[in-house]
Structure formats: structure tokens, C-alpha cells
């Protein structure tokens, strides 16, 4: 029997006229679920027979069939894991589709598979992945099997679409990958690359790591320190770019302020002395600075801001995320503070020193 020829509706228990499998050639890879095969008039018994040793098909995962006998490609392994997890087509749901309807479940790729699709240099190539991690809601009753490894989440994030596949955002994907790694060097490289390459900001990533209680793991702690340093470096680069691209007056960079013959007032990332406007990057990372040490750090920031403002110095706080997502808007906030300087009372005289 030609394996492209479906059974008749009577023998396959399909009530409507089945579509020939040949219409899929050149459109999608030959990878279908048992349900899709039945829609094309192929019964479970016929599918099983074609998957016997030496047969033209193979069953990659329960209910997921590859309609050729060669080794599956990396893409086919990703797609099959999504099909097993509940998507009828392995694609991102259409806008307006019911997320609970069959074929539009919230399954998405995560872990190393997702990092490879996001373009992480230190992620394995897709054909080299021993397992494909798929993120599912906690209530889904399904077990890991074969190369499909299921990861549970109480509230999965919204999937991103990469190469037509639903993929977890970089912070969640990286946290899921780190949870299974024990190589401290690899963890450090992945965390630093996430920020350096612009996949996500440090705060979002630390928040995900904290949510999975990974911050205190020995193989993660050193990587987080490097991540935070990289996050600040990246934020400073964005700050320099904001001043240059939006043609703001050049400030004094990385300075300390003191009262003449008096106490130290604090360090600043940028200061415009002729306008008495200071800018400070808010690189705090929720989760990494919890507890008394984090509380003391935040209280220090608040006290410094209040002291400077009493002296007539306007303090602008900017987060790395806002610099990355809305640089123009942040530039206008700074510009407004500079323009308002002419309407304010003169500030107290302060000494400006390099950090």
C-alpha cells in the first residue's frame, strides 16, 4: 500500500472525506499527531504497522509520528515535543483564538532548546540536545517521555514566536536551563551573555532565578555576581548613548559630591553642575538584595536623594530596563529637569570629585 494513500472513511472511522497526506508535502515537515492522521483517514493500526522496524514511518513520542524513516532533524524534535505536550500544530496560537481550545494550549519551549532559538552562543546546537524542555501549566497531567522533558509553571509567561515556534522569554528559559545545570562556568557565561547580548535585563533575570530559588545555589551565586556587574556596565553604555543620541548637554560622569569642608553626599552616575541636576542608575535587582542588607542599601539611596534635594539638586532615577525600552522618553525626563533649572532657586555650593 502506498503510504501516501489514506484509508477510506469506512475503515478509518472518519465521517468526513479525508485529505490525502500528499497535500502536506512541501508545506510542513511530515510530522503529525495520531489525531491529525485520523483526520487524513489513517487509522491507529495502520500507523503502528508503518512504524515497525524497516517501515517508512517512526513514532517519535506517544501519539506523534514522523512520516519518514531517517533521523529526525533538530527542528522535528522540537516540533514533536510541542505536539506531544498538546499543541495540534506546534505553532503560536492565533490572535483571538481560545487558549483552552484543543491545539492551542499554552505549551512552549524552554531551557536550552529555547536558548538555542534565542541565539545564545553557549547553547548547544539543536541536533545536539539530549532533551527538549517544554513549559506547561502545573495542572496539565502529562509525563516526560523520550526526548520531551516537561517543566511545570503555576502561571506560564506569554510565549514569544521564534521560527514559528512558541518559545519562553529569555529570563524564564534561562532560569529553567540553569536549574538543570551544575557547570558554574557555563552558568556564568550564559547569565552574562543574556545581558551583554541584550536578550534581557539583569533585574528580570534575577527575578526569575529568585522565583525558582536558585540564587543561593553554589554554581549560580558566582554567575549572579558577574551578571549584576554586566548589567551595570550595560546600563552605563545605554546612558552614554542616551546623552549622545538625544543631544543632551554633556554631564560630568561618575562623580562624588561633598559639601565644602563637610560630609560626603554620595556618588552619582552623571551630574550637570550648571543645572544642579543629578542622575543615578537604579540597578537594584529584586531577589538579589532581599533582607536587612538590601533594606539598608535602599534606605541609603532614599537618604541620599532627600539630602541632595534639600540642597536644591534635582535627582533623576533611571532603571536599565527603561533605558533599554524607552530611551527617548527617559531623555525627555532629563531634558525637562535641565530646563526647569532656570526656574528654581540656586542650589547650595557643592564640591564635585571624580569617583
From TrEMBL:
This is Transcriptional regulator, AbiEi antitoxin, Type IV TA system. It comes from Streptomyces polyrhachis. The lineage of its organism: Bacteria, Bacillati, Actinomycetota, Actinomycetes, Kitasatosporales.
Amino acid at each position: 500500500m502506498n503510504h501516501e494513500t489514506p484509508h477510506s472513511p469506512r475503515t478509518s472511522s472518519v465521517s468526513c472525506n479525508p485529505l490525502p497526506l500528499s497535500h502536506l508535502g512541501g508545506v510542513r515537515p511530515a510530522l503529525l499527531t495520531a489525531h491529525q492522521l485520523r483526520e487524513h483517514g489513517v487509522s491507529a493500526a495502520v500507523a503502528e504497522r508503518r512504524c515497525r522496524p524497516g517501515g517508512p514511518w517512526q513514532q517519535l513520542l506517544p501519539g506523534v509520528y514522523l512520516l519518514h524513516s531517517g533521523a529526525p532533524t533538530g527542528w522535528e524534535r522540537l516540533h514533536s515535543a510541542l505536539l506531544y505536550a498538546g499543541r495540534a500544530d506546534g505553532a503560536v496560537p492565533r490572535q483571538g483564538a481560545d487558549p483552552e481550545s484543543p491545539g492551542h494550549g499554552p505549551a512552549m519551549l524552554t531551557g536550552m532548546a529555547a536558548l538555542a532559538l534565542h541565539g545564545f552562543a553557549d547553547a548547544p546546537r539543536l541536533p545536539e540536545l539530549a532533551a527538549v524542555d517544554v513549559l506547561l501549566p502545573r495542572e496539565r497531567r502529562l509525563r516526560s517521555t523520550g526526548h520531551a522533558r516537561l517543566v511545570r509553571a503555576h502561571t506560564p509567561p506569554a510565549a514569544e514566536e521564534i521560527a514559528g515556534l512558541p518559545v519562553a522569554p529569555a529570563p524564564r528559559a534561562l532560569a529553567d536551563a540553569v536549574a538543570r545545570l551544575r557547570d558554574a562556568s557555563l552558568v556564568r557565561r550564559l547569565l552574562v551573555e543574556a545581558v551583554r547580548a541584550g536578550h534581557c535585563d539583569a533585574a528580570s533575570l534575577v527575578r526569575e532565578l529568585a522565583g525558582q530559588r536558585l540564587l543561593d545555589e553554589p554554581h549560580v551565586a558566582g554567575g549572579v555576581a558577574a551578571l549584576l556587574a554586566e548589567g551595570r556596565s550595560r546600563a552605563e553604555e545605554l546612558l552614554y548613548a542616551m546623552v549622545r543620541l538625544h543631544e543632551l548637554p554633556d554631564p560630568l560622569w561618575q562623580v562624588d559630591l561633598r559639601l565644602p569642608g563637610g560630609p560626603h553626599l554620595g556618588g552619582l552616575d552623571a551630574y550637570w553642575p550648571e543645572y544642579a541636576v543629578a542622575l543615578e542608575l537604579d540597578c537594584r535587582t529584586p531577589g538579589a538584595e532581599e533582607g536587612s542588607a538590601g533594606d539598608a542599601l535602599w534606605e541609603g539611596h532614599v537618604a541620599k536623594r532627600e539630602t541632595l534635594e534639600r540642597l536644591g539638586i534635582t535627582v533623576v532615577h533611571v532603571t536599565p530596563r527603561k533605558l533599554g525600552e524607552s530611551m527617548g522618553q527617559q531623555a525627555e525626563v532629563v531634558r525637562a529637569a535641565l530646563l526647569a533649572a532656570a526656574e528654581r532657586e540656586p542650589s547650595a555650593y557643592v564640591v564635585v570629585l571624580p569617583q
